[in-house]
Design goal:
Rossmann fold; Spore Coat Polysaccharide Biosynthesis Protein SpsA, Chain A; 384 residues; alpha/beta; six-stranded parallel beta sheet; 12 helices; seven-stranded mixed beta sheet
Length: 384
């Protein structure tokens, strides 16, 4: 059987986007997204992350990868990705036991397991080096002040359908026959094959705007972003705007009333029957929050100024694995909580930054059955 090692180089010293390898896209750190794609690939046997950064290492381990500590001399701006790959190969107990090495760039958040398998298959079919590439039909020009066509004659350009596509290197992933890679010291050598990928998935995180663009696209491009049965160990719910529609009725004596959804109560009851701990966590001081929690029979912490800190304490007290906790929220004060859990979920009516940071978004707004919807995801509709 072919021995295939995937290596994800992820150093901590990014200057364009500080900390980008642990920045969250669709609620998942970039490096964890790369690890997940590699682990899902059927042709990859081992997944390693080469890093000099503790936060990246922790995220990689939690995602299921082996971490290879990268020495400082291979972690600077001038160090090549190839040097990290060679170091990773030499770090193994059997340095010559890898037939194919796959390099995955964590900064390409939408690489898929199928693409990684296709790279390995290309090597197994006779290529020495392979890379992901997107078909490209654009007309390229050089020298804007005195423009000249590069891949076309401006005086007689053929129609798109009459042109052979060119191929744009995506920068997402590469595969190499290991002995040839050691000899060449570079990712391209011998017979090189371009493995086609969907142009819509091509995006590299090089600057802050790229990060925001990726977050906006995640809900469209990520497959299986909703948690299913067995994926969640506990659920934490915001209150205003999540279990309500964010409106309140104010009486002359200063008391407030809110409207809640009966379907949400059914969802909470089903989660409790399934043995899932449920917490209502809110900054709201109105006693209606505690009253709702008491009616539902769940734990409540409200009037909390720092929700992120309070959530961290609750997770520790209950000895919960953060990556297996779902948090449902709607506003920017929920973002510190989103950063702590594996399943940050926004209601459909959530603020734009919250939807962008979420791993999943409900189809209904807060106060209209969003809690019941997430219960149907994690329990299965038939259990409600």
């Amino acid at each position: 059987m072919t021995a295939v090692l995937a290596v994800i180089p992820a150093r901590g010293g990014s200057k364009g986007v500080p900390g980008k390898n642990v920045a969250r896209i669709g609620g998942v750190p970039l490096v964890a997204r790369a690890v997940g794609a590699a682990l899902a690939a059927g042709r990859i046997g081992e997944v390693a992350v080469s890093t000099d950064d503790e936060a990246i290492a922790a995220a990689a381990i939690e995602a299921g990868a082996v971490v290879i500590p990268r020495p400082a001399e291979l972690a600077g701006d001038g160090a090549s990705s190839e040097s990290a790959l060679l170091h990773a190969l030499d770090h193994r107990a059997d340095p010559d036991g890898v037939d194919i090495v796959v390099m995955i760039q964590a900064t390409s958040p939408f690489v898929t397991a199928a693409e990684l398998d296709a790279l390995v298959e290309a090597i197994e079919d006779g290529a020495d080096s392979a890379f992901t590439a997107a078909p490209f039909h654009g007309f390229v020009w050089r020298n804007a002040p005195d423009a000249a066509g590069v891949n076309h004659d401006p005086s007689g350009r053929p129609r798109r359908q009459d042109r052979e596509p060119e191929w744009l290197e995506t920068g997402a992933a590469y595969a190499m026959r290991t002995p040839g890679f050691r000899t060449a010291g570079h990712r391209f050598f011998g017979r090189i094959v371009a493995v086609p990928t969907d142009p819509a998935r091509v995006l590299e995180i090089d600057e802050p705007a790229d990060l925001e663009r990726a977050r906006a696209l995640a809900h469209l491009l990520d497959a299986g972003t909703r948690p299913g049965p067995g994926d969640v160990d506990a659920v934490v719910l915001d209150f205003d705007g999540t279990q309500t529609d964010d409106r309140a009725w104010l009486a002359a004596d200063g008391t407030e009333r809110v409207a809640v959804h009966r379907g949400d109560g059914m969802g909470v009851a089903a989660m409790r029957r399934a043995g899932l701990p449920v917490l209502i966590l809110s900054t709201e001081v109105n006693p209606v929050v505690a009253a709702r929690a008491a009616k539902l029979g769940v734990e409540c912490r409200h009037g909390v100024n720092r929700k992120g800190e309070e959530l961290g304490s609750w997770l520790a007290e209950h000895r919960l694995t953060p990556s297996r906790v779902l948090y449902l929220g709607n506003d920017v004060n929920d973002l510190p909580c989103f950063a702590q859990v594996g399943w940050p979920v926004a209601v459909a009516s959530a603020q734009t930054p919250v939807r962008a940071a979420a791993r999943a978004v409900t189809t209904v707004p807060g106060g209209h059955g969003a809690v019941r919807e997430i219960a149907s995801w994690i329990l299965g509709e038939e259990l409600l």
